[in-house]
Structure prediction request, 404 residues.
Amino acid sequence: MAKPKIVLIIMDGLGDRPVKALGGKTPLEAASTPNLDLLAKEGMCGLMLPVYHTAIPTSEEGHLSLFGYSTEKYPIRRGYFTAMGSGIKIKKGDVCLRGNFGTVDEKMNVIDRRAGRIDRTQPLIEAINGMVIDGVKFLVKYAGGHRVGIVMRGKNLSPNISDGDPHYGKLQKGLRKIVPLDKTKKAKFTASVLNKFLEKSHLILKDHPFNKKRESKGLLSANYILVRGASSYIKLPSFKKRYGFSACCIAGKVLYQQIGKALGMKLIKVKGADGSPKTNLKGKFSALRRNIKKYDFVFLHIKATDSLAEDGDCLGKKKFIEKVDRYMRFLLDLNNTLIIVTADHSTCCQLRRHCSAPIPILIYGADKDKVSCFSEKACKNGKLGTFCQLKLMSKVVCFYKKLR
Ligand SMILES: [Zn+2]
Prediction:
């Protein structure tokens, strides 16, 4: 018999809470999903508890935990993946940050965390890249849209510093100063140098001709850099070494490509896969079909379930789930394959942010339970029970062995 295979489909932020606009159902419950329901009916269901050490779950911690990498052991955060994705070669001792070009008013309140989803920020990046403050060099590189990768390079740096990004502008408008998160001299020094950089950059950015031109057109000025996810360089043991599976990653967004890359997975590029609701789902699922022949494990990431929920668009999230469901039928004839459909965390449409609600999961291809449809409520009664995200891979390996 041919070697068994594994498909992991992550619908980012899939889980949700009941919404009034959907008749008291969650977007997944309200969606018509005949193919997902079939996979649930013929497979096993359950709920996963997200791992998070910050105020709310993050995608990077969720993914690393899903793949079985404890973020206590490997405290690798967003900054690392963004800096890697921007193309900066990270060295030992560097502190990496994720940056957003954002807009602040005269009172330094955050008006927009993405400066109106600005793009083509090269002139602004050039104006602040390479700055040296107190012996620390700041490397800044474009990371798509309003995003930049930032690397602080110098002696005595620590990643143990707070975020400057207030994350959810509507709830917390005030800009945050960077503070050290421990009592070491290194953390104190890093926070102080970074604050100086952010102030200096603000002075440069607010008067930059590029921003003046934007203002004259009625567009938001990208006059501040909101930073988060400070991280040092950490080498992760490869997925292959850990589980023995050759693996590939199909994802539209840089963060998920970089997570796959950091785990040693082969990146599969798909034209038109961009993480938006209009992403090339057909291309992604076709790539999955092609590559499952070549690799033991295919990780396919779908982003828009999360971003639609973050926009508070519960109907959009429901419709997008239905759209993804139509492509799930591409998987129904895969033989001797474990198919896992789940998420990295739940994203609540009403709160417009990630939340700690348990994550629905289905595993098809090994065993069956009595659950007959795929929803948060139905998954509660599944055979997989409720378990910590970090335990997923050990379960998968267990089911995989039974297929052989
Ligand atoms: Zn996510």
